[in-house]
Amino acid sequence: MPEETTSIDYVMEAASGPHFSGLRLDGRMPSSATAAAASSSADSTLTPDFLPNQPFVIGVSGGTASGKTTVCDMIIQQLHDHRVVLVNQDSFYRGLNPEELERVHEYNFDHPDAFDTEQLLECTMKLISGQGVHVPIYDFKKHQRSSDSFRQVNASDVIILEGILVFHDQRVRDLMNMKIFVDTDADVRLARRIRRDTMERGRDINSVLEQYAKFVKPAFDDFVLPSKKYADVIIPRGGDNHVAIDLIVQHIRTKLGQHDLCKIYPNAYVIQSTFQIRGMHTLIRDRDISKHDFVFYSDRLIRLVVEHGLGHLPFTEKQVVTPTGSVYTGVDFCKKLCGVSIVRSGESMENALRACCKGIKIGKILIHRDGDNGKQLIYEKLPKDISERHVLLLDPVLATGNSANQAIELLIQKGVPESHIIFLNLISVS
């Protein structure tokens, strides 16, 4: 990448906090200046004073082939959040020793002792504390864990623990914020298990039925069904019960609440993360990305930020007549608007603003920074009537916040009310 983008690339690579805007890192913030930003995931905190909430841990239990995984997948899809991870208890089966392998048909895979609960507990606690973990991969045909591969699971906002016996150990239960039991008819579960074990795990029907009668059903009666009493929510019919899943997702959203920064600063707005946004953030952080792709995906993200910021401008009601002669009541855009870019990085947002606002006036501010504290206004060229306009202040990367502070103070000196300043920012770091 060109030399001028090195600092931006470094900041993007270092960015590990929530992506927000409008926060004055010296502890001050305009009382009514509005801010908008593109959101992404976070692996660490902004400052020690703004520690994120602990993850919301959900336990999903139920009989074999009851539809637990289907329920988990539906919850993940409806949350539309990349920061949701699924941890399957099946991954923590103990590998069988040679003696057990010789008599594998007599081994009870549905007994609590078949699982390495200590490792499951350790991995869950690490995820809750914000650490990534290596989840083992279990081979159901060889009845062994893979020795040379694992599944990398990173810290997330929501952790879902799924398995027939995740409610059995009280230590694991105590980590859960919500416990869900998937209740499905025994005949349906048996039919699903036969299909799964024959097609996915290479077993024949007779061995599946024998195992079910000898181990699965007794274990369900002895261990799984009694754990149903610990559930906060019981879902009949599993994944077919869309109403129950919708209510659960709504409850999770309520518990997660809005972004922590938005709770502290009511005039800060964070764009809700989606797989599209997360994917584009992943691309622009890749050190091997080409310059062309970096510019392309950065422009897409910047366009989202600009569009979101425009949504915070005042609108007036307006009626128009449609081609069919009917009257449509809509809104009219704010007329007195301009952009101001903080040179140099702010200029990268100008094209997106021009694409959204035809003929918009754009001013420039250049601030010299000497270390983290020194700052000096070098150049400014602003519309003469800027005090009468709403201002979109452009700066894609917020590091110390000194330039943003200086720019906001200059606009206020020029007569722009704080309530008329919207600071648009792509990535913010501590």
UniProtKB/TrEMBL annotation:
Pathway: Pyrimidine metabolism; UMP biosynthesis via salvage pathway; UMP from uracil: step 1/1; Pyrimidine metabolism; UMP biosynthesis via salvage pathway; UMP from uridine: step 1/1; Pyrimidine metabolism; CTP biosynthesis via salvage pathway; CTP from cytidine: step 1/3. SUPFAM superfamilies: P-loop containing nucleoside triphosphate hydrolases, PRTase-like. Its cofactor is Mg(2+). One of its GO terms (biological process) is UMP salvage. Residues 273-428 form the Phosphoribosyltransferase domain. Keywords: Allosteric enzyme, ATP-binding, Glycosyltransferase, GTP-binding, Kinase, Multifunctional enzyme, Nucleotide-binding, Transferase. Pfam families: PRK, UPRTase. Belongs to the UPRTase family. This is Uridine kinase. It comes from Glycine soja.
